Amino acid sequence: MKIRALMCLFFAIVMVVYAWDRLPLNGQGLEKVFALSWLSFAGLVIGGNIVAIARRGRKSTQAKQEVDNARAVKRARQFG
Asked: How many domains in the chain?
């Protein structure tokens, strides 16, 4: 799951870099609205992938702690 989020983040950044010169940021009317909306959606995608990567790292440490706690409880039951 983390690899997928990293790949999506990489491809989203590549698309923004590629499209930056081609987007009509100085355009009039709908051209400018399209460019700004495209960039805002790209920002949401990049932000979402960063959050997914950050949460995945936090969940893995919490999951390890829960597994260690479960093992400790199981050992205590064996000897108690």
From this structure: 1
